[in-house]
Amino acid sequence: MLFNSLITFQYRALIHLSPTFYLAVLISGGNVGTGCQEGSTSYDECRQRCTCVGGQWVNCVRIRKEFTSLTDAERKRHIDTILSVSAIDSIYRAKYEELINEHFDRFYESIHTQEHFLPWHRYYILRYENLMRKADCTFTVTYWDWSLDSRNPFSTDPDNVWNNVTGFGGNGADHDNCVLDGPFRKGAWKRVRPDNPPPFSRQLPDCLTRSFRGEPPGEIELMKVLYFDDFNNFEPDLRGDLHGNVHCYIHGTMCDHQSASAPEFFLHHGFIDKIWDDWQKKSSDHKEAYFPTIDEIMPGTDLRPEQLIDLSNQPGGVSVEYEPFKPQEEIRKKVEGKKTFMHPGLYTTYTFQRTNIPTTSFSSLFPCFLPFISFLFQCFLPVLSHSSSYFLFVFHSVPCPTTLGAEPCFSCLRIC
Ligand SMILES: [Cu+2]
Questions:
Q1: CA distance 104 to 49
Q2: Bridge partners for 66 per DSSP
Q3: Separation of 246 CA from ligand 1 center, angstroms?
Q4: CA 371 / ligand 1 centre spacing (Å)
Q5: Residue 309 backbone dihedrals phi, psi, to 5 degrees
Q6: Beta strands in 292-389 (DSSP E)
Q7: Is residue 290 within 8 Å of 235, Cβ to Cβ?
Q8: Cα of 400 from ligand 1 centre, angstroms
Q9: Residue 260 to residue 406: CA distance in whole angstroms
Q10: What is the pTM of this model?
Q11: Which of 23, 106, 156, 265 is the most exposed place for a label (fewest CB within 10 A)?
């Protein structure tokens, strides 16, 4: 906890500089299109990051950020745009309804199978972003990195996604779990209802509903999924464990076929898409994995999955980048630094067969004496007797007592 909060604190200090940064860049960006220094970058009026090539600002990129890394003013502007596009009397409401209902109407088509899930939803959130940008061209999809909030995912503290002033509002209340606070509260905002719900479908209330429960996967669990090199291991875990479960930890509207009508749908799918992007960045083979072999077009589109592979070349010539969330990057770097004596992830016979985790001896993996002893009793012996169990290693935030100085030690968590 200490470890996490220290990083978060440093990060908060950094992001509070960002309004000044924007201002400076926008002012000096007054010469956009009139000559610029080769290779320099600047932000255009829609806050795309552009690069100077041959005296012109080109290769402009939409930067998608983690929602809680935004300043309060940026959060407000983001949510105000969603409210203005989705308002009943908005000129964009009809288009918004059409888009939201498309996810409902095609729920049982192949949009949730391996062939289409990742690229279809990448295209879907892009179309959502395009629609929002009609009202405010600075809008980009934001993501919620739930892996860093997994210990306390549904906090309504001011920094959190679920705050009722700077965020998306809190948990549902009363018998029908309607959200009663924040910008999308009952009475103030109307979510999209399907035009023709099948008669047997569950009748959801008109309001946005939530019923928080459970804990989203943590950072180590996420790293375990990213660690797979085989697309057929990576994709099902991302789609099922990481994507599906988090939908239903928020529960309510998000755990229903009408989930796209919940505004947090796009926070969650932004993160799922970023995780795919993180995995794609491992190598050109990862980037190209699987989809070029799918010939059929994606439901409701005239595009093949392959056309969504490259985030820098999306339909309509759009280029997108996910801004790394600093606390998460720090943790990953920290964990990767331990590779010489410790691999994060799962130690099982099953895992050894599926991945290439080096089988170095356990004593050299565990330089901390006390954790090593407890590891022997809690983890290694059960591994011998339960080959179908597996074990997740987690960080302790306490300093290691021996040779590693201030480095954190490890312990393991048994998962059956
Ligand atoms: Cu979906």
A1: 34
A2: 143
A3: 12
A4: 42
A5: -60, -40
A6: 320-322
A7: yes
A8: 43
A9: 45
A10: 0.75
A11: 23
Q: Ligand 1 center to residue 212 CA distance, Å?
A: 19
Element (H, E) at 80: helix 72-86
Sign of CA dihedral 134, 135, 139, 145: negative
How many residues are there in the chain? 416
Report the sign of the C-alpha dihedral through residues 6, 156, 326, 237, in that order: positive
- What percentage of the chain reaches a pLDDT higher than 70? 70
For the chain, what is the radius of gyration of the CA atoms? Answer: 23
pLDDT class for 224, splitting at 50, 70, 90? confident
Q: What 3-state DSSP class applies to 63?
A: strand
Contact 396, 411 (CB under 8 A): yes
Q: Are 410 and 369 in contact (CB under 8 A)?
A: no
Say whether pLDDT at 367 is over 60: no
Give distance in angstroms: CA of 106 to centre of ligand 1.
Answer: 9
Q: Taking residues 296-318, what's their average pLDDT? A: 96
3-state secondary structure 266-286: HHHHHHHHHHHHHHHCCCHHH
| Ligand 1 centroid from CA 302, angstroms | 18
Gap from CA of 164 to ligand 1 centroid (Å): 26
In which band, very low, low, confident or very high, does the pLDDT at 374 lie, cut at 50, 70 and 90?
low
Q: Which two tokens stand for residue 107?
A: 């729920």
- Domains in the chain: ranges and CATH: 2-63 (no CATH), 67-328 (1.10.1280.10), 338-415 (no CATH)
Q: How far is the CA of 16 from the centre of ligand 1 (A)?
A: 34
